[in-house]
Structures
1.
Amino acid sequence: MTKSALDKDLQRVSGLEIATHDLARSLAAPGIALVFLLAAMVWAIFAVTDGPMSYLAVIAAVIAGYMALNVGANDVANNMGPAVGSKALTMGGALVIAAVFESAGALLAGGDVVNTVARDLLVPGTHLSNTTFVLVMMSALLASALWVNLATYIGAPVSTTHAVVGGVVGAGVAAAGFGVVAWPMIGAIISSWVVSPVLGGVFAAILLAFIRKTVTGRIDKVSAARIWVPVLVALMTGIFAMYLATKGLKRIWSPDMVTTIALGLAFAGLGWIAAMPWVRARSLTMENRKKHIASLFRLPLVVAAALLSFAHGANDVANAVGPFAAIVAAIQSGEGSIGSVDMPFWVLSIGAIGIALGLALFGPRLIRTVGEQITKLNEIRAFCVALSAAFTVLTASALGLPVSSTHIAVGGIFGVGFLREYWSYRDMKGAAVPVHARFIDPAMLNATPAEALARERKRERRRLVRRHHVLSIAAAWVVTVPASALLAAMLYLGVNALIG
């Protein structure tokens, strides 16, 4: 055998090994997810007491686990995407931090009592038989999980809350008609499609403009950072203290408004005291460049992302297992319920483990989409997005506005991107530089005036936000509720016909 033939054979073997390795890696994630769903099924078999409908609780446990995987794969990207996109965290570090804090939030502060979405979306006094109620919840949960799975596959961050809402509405209409739905609540949810991203974008843009005015736009950036970065850290610690007290620690503590504000002021003071020496020590050897100033926001950004994950786990675990908890309560009590139900620890555990696994197995794709493919982020811009998310939720809660954390986070990214685009366009348009002096590209030295003008116009059309992502994400937001509703209605009618 010649040497060239041997080399070709070795290349074929090497290529086969690589292909085998890639195939094994692609199959590992679904395999691990399947093992988790089987474990959830076995857990439910032992946890649910025997009864004529206990088999439905076992099936619902598998559906809830599937939904938890999808919540982790899609929703968590909103918290970790900016930190990864800004290079403040590696993908591995983000997955570890998010998994730990999401699970901690779900297990430690997950709703002690879950006001199921059915209570708010179905007209009070609506009576559903026990079997009908269970099938409505199962159809809603499966439909929302399937939709979020599809959205994750195509790379669109969507609201899992809206998916569950659509599922309950669709299954409820299929079971009892259009009169069963509380349509004013649906109108409020639809309004959040506009309110959430606009508020998130405006607050993030205002914060970025403030940082540019006070720190990065100054001649002596280091001195300005010593003054203002501790103030911004204090703002962050105060806002997150209030955010966690009102949204992330409901199971442990529910303070009144005065206590919440006092808590925010106290933690703001502690944050300022801790940040002052830390910023000064790091700035002693720091160059007077924006890139070096941005590094001061790295640690605060990581802390903010971790706290957002904790609060998300505490709140959104109900999207995965809230309907399942209602199903378990209905089966064990023998009565269809659209009110408040207890959240057993084993049910919370399925949600917490599922979210963590979904994030680790399927989350990186959405994290990259949110953090890298909408607009370019650095530590400062990502910090603005994270702080805007917490502040927007607090403001909306105080005003009684329905908002989506997913829409807020993505809206914040759009906000900082469009603001930078505006600055870039304004600076280019107002630059007092002769046209011939702007083209230093060697390829354009001998260009005609028409070619030079065309090149200039092309540069002016340079955009810092990818428009196709804006349109595709907005479309996914709008379609989520009706798509989940239609799918849930079809599932309910099919399952009801099968069982009946």
2.
Amino acid sequence: MKFGLIGGALALTLGLAGPAFADIKIGASVSETGPASSLGDPEAKTLKLLVDEINAAGGVLGQKIKLVLYDDGGDPNKARTFATRLVEDDEVVAIVGGSTTGTTMSIISVVENAKIPFISLAGAIEIVDPVKPFVFKTPHTDRMACRKIFEDMKAKGFSKIALISGSDGFGASMRKQCLQVIGEFGITVLAEETYGPNDADMTPQLTNIRSKADVQAILNPGFGQGPAIVTRNYGQLGIKTPLYQSHGVASKSFIDLAGPASEGVRLPGTAVLVASLLPANDPQKPVVSAYTSAYQAKFNQPASTFGGYAHDGLRLLVDAIKRAGKAEPKAIRDALEGTKGFVGVTGTFNMAASDHLGLDLSAFRMLEIKGGNWALVQ
């Protein structure tokens, strides 16, 4: 009898202790390989780096994080399959990922049905507008990028431009958003061209644009290798009209791929790209410096905007779990929606029931490529 009581008490103790010290499973599906690897590779590296850092510091609520990471290769069908696996088999409490708009949109239906919080790393405004209860994101929207670019164009006196857009999900979405807001800045489009995600030469499109004598600037909404090809062809044709790119290419790999033709290109980007140039009193300076230094030391390569999106996605989740006091999907979702004053490397997040991004235009920095590197536009 005595042994039975002791054994029962021990079993009860172990039963209570087991779940309390179980790992917190966080899932991720990113495009580590494939056409969007310039986005997904630094995202995957960042997630692994941060999980190691967090666990080494004691984890969250006394529990370690277990990262369940899949590489969807930029394929929306694979992303949906992996999201389903994360929910049903891996039983994660939240998901970070969706390197592209296409993969993100395929994940959304899965997480909404399962009521699992999801933080997307893609740019299109459709991800969070209209607001979906369990879907959040860390990158600025494409509409915000359009506004930032048009502000700069207007300040430089440009009122007549040309568009050359990628036909992928991001490029098509940003083109649409730019056309919706461009009139607010007194700017008109005189010429418009598009290119496919597998196109290897955009010389014909750029030749058409060059023939329009009144064009004062060129804007290229797109991501991946397309904008680098556009920039190289732009240089090969000797076009002198100022070229603007989107935040979809805000990484050193774009400069390397585009080569000397990228000199003078302007685009909206995040503080990650100019960490050393930030003033000492910038509230993002400590966060950005810590992340970029750790990433450089671990991987021997500069941190990118896209890795920064993953940094903020995971840190936002950890912050939400801490404030919720438990790693339960609904509680995490509610805490995420209540995020206020969270300083990340992308900006300061202030979310609400009507805003599952929480960034304003001030989080963007207007950048210019000078001497093969990033410079702040003053």
3.
Amino acid sequence: MSDRLIKKYPNRRLYDTEQSKYITLSQLRQLIVGGELIKVIDSTTEEDITRTILLQIILESESGGNPLFTANMLSQIIRFYGGTLQGIFGNYLEQSLGMFTTQQEQIRKNMGEDPFTAMTNLAQNNMKLWTDMQKDFFSAAGFSSPKKEEK
């Protein structure tokens, strides 16, 4: 599935090339929430500005209602910029969010199952995912994974 192309014009308007109409930032947010993969380009320079627009959507969402990020969490994220672990931290966050999304899908899928079995399966999957992610994290940071003791 290819990304849905959105063009941003100098008048700050967003144009959905699939629907051939202008959309608001709020409508773009709804597309994303609905599972659409998007790519936003500047109509003049053809530069990919997807990240900038996504950050703008997050900023707008954080300004109203119930924010997702606390001031402490944002301060901690800022501290990673420019540091040696910036890339590793970004990868870690991406994998964590991916794992969280997978868990949510599993919970929805297993709602009809016996709750004990569903939770046991989820816990087992979580342990494997976290173990794999930790291994990748430490490997990327230059640490070797601990060897099992031989008996």
4.
Amino acid sequence: MNAMTEITTAAPVSHTVPTSLGRLNVVEHGQGPETIVLWPSIFTDHHIYEDLIATMGTSYRFLLIDGPAHGLSEGGSDEFTMEDCATAMSEVMDYFNLEAAIIGGTSWGGITAAHLALMWPARVKALVLMNTPMQIDAARPGLKARFIATGARWALTTTTFRNGVAKSFFSDDVLAANSTYAKAFHAMLKQANPVSLAAAIRSVILRGSPLIERMTELAVPTLVIAGKQDAMYPIAIQAEAALLAPNGHFAPVGGKHISVVEHPEHVAEALTRFIASEVAE
């Protein structure tokens, strides 16, 4: 990873948390007065947030959730809904005795957090949607989405497929500069259970519904962070979604799909400013 700022938080602690989607790995960083709960995208785990935490230092406590079949979390062969993921996220909050927190995530994690905010708004102090698909529609999946969803079980073991995912997620210069993360990205996918990981990927791609149609229902302060070069989720749609939220904020940053890896300092700046204006008393 970039490691631009030395991590000053206490050593992270890993927890195995029982949820309705199985036992999920949750990594706890820091001891700040506000807790930020984050869920990563498909094909990634909690490591994508390391530089964000390094940049933000000891100001916040972070709980980073590996999604089912990702990182060190359990997975199964059954598919699940985004509401199921939101329930699991709330169960993680229960485990840590959190009545409410700042919640969010990247892509899949953003969808998960948005559903939690729609289902239980009182539990959400603020919502952070990083590089989140706003128009994903299981009823009309695109060709690329169908290819990824149906071929993931067999293709994950191939370098070609993993490189294709990496190039969709990250700019070439970021992959070149972050050799440690690039290796970790490949290692996680190689070590994952292909059946469970493919079930999770199908769940996200083929069981979702457009989030943009529900942005007006969000009753909490909402920050939408988008990559300016994200071909999968065009920035114009992200900006429109932010405007639809009653208390929406929009933060475009450089790079492609995983902004928190490509430009953690810009994400940290936007997130800190958003929390200061919407959460701080």
